[in-house]
Amino acid sequence: MAEIAPSILAADFAHLSRDVEAVERAGVSMIHVDVMDGHFVPNITIGPPVVRSLRKATRLLLDCHLMIENADLFISEFAAAGADMISVHQEACPHLDRTLQLIREQGAKAGVVLNPATPVNTLEAVLASIDFVLVMSVNPGFGGQKFIPYTLDKVRELDQIRRDRHLGYRIEIDGGVSANNVGEIVNAGCDIIVAGSSIFGTGDPAAAVETMRRKAVEGRLLQA
Fold this sequence. Notes:
It is built from eight helices and eight strands.
């Protein structure tokens, strides 16, 4: 079954622990943490101190998405702070294989992120050695954007590749996901569904998670 990963980018940072507890009670297994540096993307968010605080507040997996330049300089800090999964952008890592090795050496699951216009074939050399691929379904930098439909073609391509080659990576998607499109997204082959404003912006995060989970199950049934 596809997993819902609520993104704290849309949470209330004055009551972050409360919001995380709300989705934890709804049965999610992971929290998505968007890290932005104001250089690779036009926004600044959080760093290792917030991850460290989250680690103290929850046992959920912390999925840290590094939308930053020079990721190699910060991977060990995020891992030490408690990140269980760390993903880096193909577009920002000139030595991608080395960066992925560094993530694994720190004991975290290693993932690669593709921006909407970046083709899947740029990952040809690393697909056999990564734990997950994160497909951006909006241009990264801000929450609350509209889903880009053609990104599902990349999800389908990644799903077909892992079937053909018997590979074990998971497929994650981030951006513009809601209860209205999550069924189609899961049907395309996604395993991890990141959602921010459609969960934390509803006034009842737990209920939003339940609705999205139900729609995701329906999408998986259609896939089968």
